[in-house]
Amino acid sequence: MKKMFVPILFLSLLTGCDAPQRSRLAGSNVAGVNTLGLPSTTTSGSFSGVVGTTTGSTTGSTTGTTNALTSKPGFQTCTALNPLKYTLAGGNLDVCQSVADETQLAVLPTFSDTDPTKTCLIPTYKDTAGSSTYLGQPQCFSAKINSGVIGALVKNRTGFTQFPINGVIIMKSASLTAYFTCMDAYATFIAQNCPAPYTNANCTAAAQTNMANLCNQFKASNPYLDIRLK
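Now predict its structure.
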């Protein structure tokens, strides 16, 4: 990874009952430069491509959907999908990454979204310490119970396309603004407030404090999950 002008700040990302995860937040102390790259807004794409749905009783009703997902090229090793559970809205979202294309994910929700709410997936790189860095804009879809979807993540964050997608952050569409406000807080503060009236050292400290406050607000008010895919 390229060297940053300031130390990278790590903040704990609490994931409900899961063990705490961390997200890497970085920025530059060069005024007017946002080194976070894309995306700096909540603009999102569409995670779409329903490949299997089921009807009938809850017991055993996902069998047809799971088979439809795991029979696709690259997903044959997903036995009933990987046991990665996104718990929100009264259900889970099973997730499995293609072994042939890192951008392709199969998901199987046990809940349904109510319009206009959508479920969004953000690709990440997770290092050996468990820290995660987002790699592209969110891809969102309207979850329907036991309706399997295979869709594509987008890795388009400037300066980070060389990193593999080995994780994903999942949240509701209503949380995206708060998430990217947190992610972009450091660089936004620097661009708006530095160098005057601060010295570089004082400005860096103030920017880190501002980012920590905004990220803590996000964590306290927005359910999400930060998981490792492989």
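The two ends are 20 Å apart (CA to CA).
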